[in-house]
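ok so i was messing around last nite and threw this chain in just to see what happens. nothing serious, just curious
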Amino acid sequence: MVAITAEASAGEKEISMMAEGMYPVATREIALRRKQLAPEINEAFENFSRAVFTDGALPEKVKQLIAVAVAHVTQCPYCITGHTRLAHRKGATPEEVMEAIWVAAEMRAGGAYAHSTLALHALGDGAAEPATDRASSSSRTRGGDGS
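result:
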């Protein structure tokens, strides 16, 4: 879980930009209200979040870099800001953060590329097999004996 609070200089500028846009500022009051409305669930989520980001097979820095990448794919401005800050606090360099973002961008683009299979099948263009695989595929489909 990422709590966005006003920090000096750069942090205040980012929060100000968020407030001027379409997303309201995440405040301590909002966090307290969420907790008040569903205290057990809120506590479970906070415990889960702490457990997820604890050093384990992956160090927290790597987990935060993964979170930065995922936040860019899910397009959560709160997560992008919070996890970028946390990754930096855990020692991630700006270059590492940017590479994580590029991995996310490639995966997002790769998903679109891979899903073109659905469009090609819908158009009737996906059913044809490459010429070199037709014979072997045909025999596999028929049990290998050509029947």
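not much to say yet. Residues 3-8 have pLDDT under 50 and may be disordered.
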